[in-house]
Amino acid sequence: MSGKKRLWHRESCICILAFSLLALAFSPASAETFTATSIHTLSVSSLSDKKSVFAGINDAVEIILPKDEDYIQGIEVTFRLPQRIAEKHENLSWSLYKDTQAITPDEASPVYSGTRIAMGSFGIYLSLVLKIPLYPNSAIKRDAYSYYIPNTSGSYGEKLLVRIQGARQFSEEELKLYPVEISAKPIFTEKSRLFIRLRPPAGKEMQPCTVFVDGKPCTIEKSGMLVSPGIHDISVTSDFYRNELRAVTVEGAKDTHVEIDLRDIAPLLRIIAPEGTKIFMDEQPVANMQA
Predict the structure, then answer these.
(1) CATH 2.60.40.1120 domain range(s) in the chain
(2) Distant-in-sequence, close-in-space partners of 62: CB < 8 Å, separation ≥ 6
(3) What percent of the chain has pLDDT over 90?
(4) Mean pLDDT across the stretch 90-104?
(5) Does pLDDT of 179 surpass 80?
(6) Are 97 and 114 a contacting pair, CB within 8 Å?
(7) Taking the CA of residue 146 as centre, how many other CA atoms within 13 Å lie in the half-sphere pointing to its CB?
């Protein structure tokens, strides 16, 4: 075989292999059964802290998803491989499942069923980051340093499961002494919720008014309104109240509550007089004098 033919053959094999791995990773979700040597658990909360566990090859990790998803749009899962294991990266792979359940919860070798969402290899790197949206059309940013797994099926329910698969080339010593660190943390949205409450003067009913946020008219809803973190200008105009203006700082992924006391536009006349003085206005006695 000539040099050009050998080069063409090598490049073709590399392209076919790369395409095959890519197609496998993004293949349609399919249900399957599998075994795991051990099952670990990671609970992801609405806090920004990262939780970690150490799992062996052929183990699985259940990732409990947060119940409060108001500001969470996805989960970031990070694998950190020991150098000894990474040297045999071609024998190691990962899989991600949803809708998992135990068929035979035997502690020695439990059998699980689940729908595979994605799978892939670790390549030649010591770490791998998965970005997993919790709903379609999320605003999670893609980058060259992480593996983005599209969500095409909607909610994942209460949990996901990550499985580490290794070929038989790993010795018993490697399986026991070199676990893989797996961590998970939430990916927050870039929005916050702003709640505005208007209070009329004491003893009076609420009158019509218009609320502007950053110069745009808005409707006050009980569920609040989504805004970007930062400083926002709130103004209130009305024919019945004085104009009000507030500058509010909104923090990321948090609720911000603003209460505005409206003031009547009716003029207030203050009269200072000795005790017992009778006061008349337009020849009418003033009866509602307050100390």
Answers:
(1) 192-285
(2) 39, 40, 41, 42, 100, 159, 160, 161
(3) 44
(4) 88
(5) yes
(6) yes
(7) 16
Burial track 35-72 (b if 16+ CB lie within 10 A, e otherwise): ebeebbebebeeeeeebebebbbbbbbbbebbeeeebb
Q: Could you tell me the pTM of the whole model? A: 0.70
How does strand 39-43 pair with strand 60-64? parallel
Per-residue pLDDT tens over the stretch 258-275: 999 999 988 877 888 888
pLDDT tens-digit map of 106-156: 666 778 899 999 999 888 888 999 999 998 888 898 998 899 999 887 888
The per-residue DSSP string of 195-250 comes to EEEEEPSTT------EEEETTEEE---TT-EEE-SEEEEEEEE-SSB--EEEEEEE
Residues 163 and 143: their CA atoms lie apart, in Å, by 24
What is the band of 5 on the pLDDT scale with cuts at 50, 70, 90?
A: very low
CA separation for the pair 175, 164 (Å, rounded): 12
The tokens 């770490």 sit on which residue? 127
**The two structure tokens encoding residue 98:** 């949803």
Fold (CATH) for 192-285: Immunoglobulin-like (2.60.40)
CATH match for 27-188 among 3.30.70, 3.10.50, 2.40.160, 2.60.120: 2.60.120
Distance CA 148, CA 138 (A): 12
Neighbours of 264 (CB within 10 A): 14
End-to-end CA distance of the chain: 109
